[in-house]
Design a protein that fits this description.
Blueprint lengths: L26 H9 L12 E7 L5 E9 L9 H10 L4 E7 L9 H16 L3 E8 L4 E3 L7
Parallel strand pairs: 3-4
Antiparallel strand pairs: 1-2, 1-3, 4-5
Length: 148
């Protein structure tokens, strides 16, 4: 009996655009880079959860938008974060999201997602260097505050 299975093909690719990547040396570097990824007028409008991907030398490989939410929250899927990290051959990540209210204090959900991603990444030997909460004028760094 000859069985013909029809399944979808999975193709994975990552194409870096730049040879001389920017390096992240502190939370301010991460904040400035992530702030530049927001279109004018959007950072105070609704929440966006993004991830910055880094190589062994802490050079930026790229970033991606994980989720786009409402005024007070967005839902980040740990599996999508890890998928992108593996696809880019990242050894370190910086999580980032904005608070449209301008209140930079981490919520319980912010702390929970940080722990979930950290635990998943640790299994893959990927470091979570920071989780930045940003507004258009300032930021909060989990790493600087000893929350990682």
């Amino acid at each position: 009996m000859n069985i013909d299975y029809k399944v979808g093909e999975v193709k994975l690719s990552y194409k870096p655009k730049f040879k001389n990547q920017q390096k992240v040396t502190c939370s301010e570097d991460a904040y400035k880079y992530m702030l530049s990824t927001y279109k004018k007028g959007t950072i105070c409008y609704k929440e966006y959860f993004k991830v910055l991907f880094l190589n062994q030398a802490n050079q930026i490989l790229g970033y991606t938008l994980i989720s786009e939410g409402g005024i007070t929250e967005t839902c980040a899927d740990v599996r999508l974060i890890m998928q992108a990290a593996l696809l880019t051959n990242s050894v370190a990540l910086i999580l980032a999201h904005n608070h449209p209210s301008g209140n930079l204090k981490p919520s319980r959900q912010d702390m929970d997602i940080t722990k979930q991603v950290r635990d998943a990444a640790q299994f893959m030997r990927i470091k979570i260097l920071d989780h930045i909460i940003l507004s258009d004028t300032e930021y909060y760094s989990f790493a600087d505050e000893g929350m990682l």
